[in-house]
Amino acid sequence: MRRTSASLLAGTLVAALAWASGPSSPAIALDPSPGVADLAQDINQILSDSRLTIARAGVVVRSAANGDELYSTDGGKLMIPASNTKLFTGAAAAETLGLDYRFTTSVLSSARRAGSVLAGDLVLRGTGDPTMLAEDYDALAAKVADAGIRTVAGRLVADDTWFDSVRLGNDWAWDDETAYYAAPISALTASPDRDYDAGSVIVSVAADGDKVKVSTTPETDYLKIVNKATTGASTNVLIERRHGTRTVVITGTVATPYQEWVAVDDPTAYAAALFRQALTKHGVRVLGPTVTGAAPSGAAKLAERESMPLSELLVPFMKLSNNIHAEILTKAMGRKVSGQGTWAAGLKVSTDFARANGVQVLNMRDGSGLSRRDGFSPASIAQLLTAVRGKPWFQAWYDSLPVAGDADRFVGGTLRNRMRGTPAAGNVRAKTGSLTGVTALSGYVTSADGEPLVFSVMLNQYLSGSPKDIEDKIAIRLARFSRTGTVDALPQLRQAPADAPELECSWLKPAHC
């Protein structure tokens, strides 16, 4: 037994003794119950980790039932949230767009028909659907063919005017340009998989005798592949798109199959290329070039595809921390509220929603958290988590959060490999966040007494060694929290190796998870 007495005086004294090695502004238990004083001491001790000596750490714990603050250190300080930003974007989208919201992708034309000939342009119009796959463009093309059209005498017009033409988010790093998690945003796009990584192509390599075979998912000639790779005793290959181009250069050696998710340079042109390819497959020739532009007023609808509702899209968005979904939803909110599919309009919707729900400290530069100029305080995140519990859409949003220790990717998400075999497993539902030198974990946990808690842990400016285990220790400690009793020992977790990846597991894709 670590401590046999936990009176208010003793608990406060022990918490004070932890200050020397604890966080910069260690918390004092404000609640007289022995369990709260014990909790304060333990979190202070967890935050005394040497990796945080020159770092910033902000932690807030509240009772979700009555709003009592059980612990706070630097709770009001502005910190980089990384993907914790998606808590705000997802909640604002559920409130603004509604859980029944669906994206539509349409095929239109105002041209007259002459038998099987469409004597004018064929228009492909999008509203931002990130779930469009090559097979969905194929299905639209099949409907055009089923309508009896065999020749389009005009052009294929790609209408992406639902959103503006700004493709990359505020402050995004230029060296992320070809990374799928920073893909350009457009009202017309396509995904290569059912994670719905919009705006990217999977490029795969495999040894084929003494040559390296390259394939793409989806099959497309949109990218220009320059294959300089050779077979070898091991796989050490680089697949990289050249800045500002459609050219993907592959170098290195290949022994076993390997694949990389690569962002395209122009998602509108990529989607149009997939649709044109599908039209050809179904026997529909387009005589004119592919261009961009708005559909003419009054154009007739030839085919349409609706996405899954937002209630379902929240799952891959939040579980897998999909940046592109966040930015598309941001622009969709702007379009709905002000008629402007822009970051500025959408971010105003998100910040207005946050402030209307009592959030005071926030600075949103994008919807995903990829910007290092995004800023929230742990107290602001805790306030949001508390305020949304009464919303009619809360259950769907809550269910979309990653669940600690659940191995299913679409349940555990970015927490599926964390806190397994602890009281937090299957209990903690929280949003992760990761950038280089930044990690955060904020969400919900039920205490040992059955009390619902909200928490936010934000760690910034550490130099080496991912401190995600510090977040986990706090979450596990909260799962063991009791107002009436003390905890015998702190959770023991293995520290991540110094070379462990700092990004979200899902950002690195299955080969790394």
Question: Features of this protein?
Answer:
5-stranded antiparallel β-sheet, 23 strands, 5-stranded mixed β-sheet, 513 residues, disordered N terminus, single chain, alpha/beta
Helix content: 25-40%
Largest sheet: 5 strands, antiparallel
Spans of at least 5 consecutive residues whose pLDDT stays below 50 are 1-22
- Number of contiguous helices: 11
The CA-CA distance between the termini, in Å, is 38 Å
Would you give an account of this structure?
With 513 residues, the chain is of the alpha/beta class. It has helices at 8-17, 34-46, 85-96, 134-146, 267-281, 310-319, 323-338, 343-356, 378-387, 394-399, 468-479; strands at residues 56-63, 69-73, 104-109, 113-114, 117-118, 122-126, 151-152, 156-159, 200-208, 211-217, 224-227, 230-231, 236-241, 247-254, 258-263, 285-286, 290-292, 300-306, 362-363, 375-376, 429-435, 438-446, 452-460. A hairpin with a 5-residue loop joins β13 and β14 (247-254). α7 packs across α8 (343-356). The two termini are 38 Å apart. The model is unreliable at 1-22 (pLDDT under 50).
